Amino acid sequence: MKLSSLTAISPVDGRYYELTQSLRYIFSEFSFLKYRIQVEILWFKKIINLHKILKIEKVDNEDILFIDNILKNFSIKDAIYIKNIEKKTNHDVKSLEYFLKYKISKSKTLSLISELIHFSCTSEDINNIAYALMMKDSIKKVILPLWSEIIIFLKKFSMQYKKNPLLSMTHGQPATPSTVGKEFLNFYYRIQRQFSKLKKIEILAKFNGTTGNYNAHLAAYPDINWHMISREFITSLNLSWNPCTTQIEPHDYIAEIFGCISLFNTILIDFNRDIWGYISLNYFKQISIDHEIGSSVMPHKINPIDFENSEGNLGLSNALMNHMINKLPISRWQRDLSDSTVLRNIGMALSYSIVAYHSVLSGVKKLEINNSQLLNNLNKNWSILSEAIQTVMRRYNIKNSYEKLKKLTRGKEINKSDIYNFISRLNIPETEKKRLKEITPVNYIGYAVKIVEEITK
């Protein structure tokens, strides 16, 4: 069976193909090969630039251009060539070395120094930098832009609906009102924190040989400061240098990144569930799209499928990332291979997140606030003002304030007249009675509007 979006096993390469293709340029097998070729070439060029202290022939600009074009023109045909070598060698990184040696054999000058390709490197010197570059590109080019879209929407809704009162539900029961904008702001503030945190996480890489001590480097050139050269090489790639490792970079930074993304996703799951609930309460309507169908048998339905899809995919993504958080920082002694197959699934973990982000963005664009339902629910629940009344009573030292309001309201249907009559009988100043009677379920929103205005400045 020929592989296509219809025959792929994973939905991220099948059903959700169009949503995840941005990651295909980073985490596909072809892209992984290309990132590693890039690292090999950059290290080869770094060695060439050290020609004076290494006492090798200087390479002219024409040959440097030849090397650069290997990466620039890297193609599917080249990738297949490498994979065919790997079938014989059963070693992926060695196959890259042989491929590059084959390529530069066409240059007389470069062929003379072909043994300097992959010089003093262990496979993980190449792989860890490739993964670091992949993580950097995925965060910068894919994840943060999508997070930014979600944040912009939440901020927009916070400001747009900052004055629209909403009956809060604590423990699923009517509670002190808020506003629609303030409830969106709660998620905006939480998500914005993770956005800022993710941007600050250092992406680390190492380049120090088989057990992290430059043994082979010093065997060949004992008088060269390879520690300094390693730092120069890593930082030239806009990565943070890890100076102290075993054979592998310990992946702590990946765990930190996934911890941040996983928390972002958990917050978004919370958002999805809240919006799902608000739609169920009819606080929000979903804009009807004529050609869409909600149910195969119930024509009236407009299901909140975008939020459900988002929730499900966030859960899958978090399950994979949480395994990686627990697995990747662990390696037996100086190195074992159990991290390798896990690392190859980074793209899969992020793909489920990407699908979820697109789904939630699709869902929120269909939301339409239902003010009449919001106001109707508020006006049915005058008992929520018992909080305000008993608190004012406490101010005036009226004994058993809480208990008196409990007797009036708990488990009973209370209307405006009941509340007004209770206030009228209170032994408090008339000005306070008047002020209490001006409080309604609709305007009892505290600082909700001010908090929105302050946070969204």
UniProtKB/TrEMBL annotation:
The UniProt record lists the keyword Lyase: yes
Annotated function: Catalyzes two reactions in de novo purine nucleotide biosynthesis. Catalyzes the breakdown of 5-aminoimidazole- (N-succinylocarboxamide) ribotide (SAICAR or 2-[5-amino-1-(5-phospho-beta-D-ribosyl)imidazole-4-carboxamido]succinate) to 5-aminoimidazole-4-carboxamide ribotide (AICAR or 5-amino-1-(5-phospho-beta-D-ribosyl)imidazole-4-carboxamide) and fumarate, and of adenylosuccinate (ADS or N(6)-(1,2-dicarboxyethyl)-AMP) to adenosine monophosphate (AMP) and fumarate.
Family: Belongs to the lyase 1 family. Adenylosuccinate lyase subfamily.
Keywords linked to the UniProt accession: Lyase, Purine biosynthesis
Subunit composition and interactions: Homotetramer. Residues from neighboring subunits contribute catalytic and substrate-binding residues to each active site.
Catalytic activity: N(6)-(1,2-dicarboxyethyl)-AMP = fumarate + AMP; (2S)-2-[5-amino-1-(5-phospho-beta-D-ribosyl)imidazole-4-carboxamido]succinate = 5-amino-1-(5-phospho-beta-D-ribosyl)imidazole-4-carboxamide + fumarate
Coiled coil, from the record: none
Domain Fumarate lyase N-terminal: start-end pairs: 14-312
Protein name (record): Adenylosuccinate lyase
Gene name of this polypeptide: purB
Any one GO cellular component localisation term in the record: cytosol
One of the GO BP terms on file: IMP biosynthetic process
Pathway: Purine metabolism; IMP biosynthesis via de novo pathway; 5-amino-1-(5-phospho-D-ribosyl)imidazole-4-carboxamide from 5-amino-1-(5-phospho-D-ribosyl)imidazole-4-carboxylate: step 2/2; Purine metabolism; AMP biosynthesis via de novo pathway; AMP from IMP: step 2/2
Any GO MF annotation of the entry: N6-(1,2-dicarboxyethyl)AMP AMP-lyase (fumarate-forming) activity
EC number: 4.3.2.2
Top-level enzyme category: lyase
Residue span(s) of domain Adenylosuccinate lyase PurB C-terminal: 331-445
SUPFAM superfamilies the record matches: L-aspartase-like
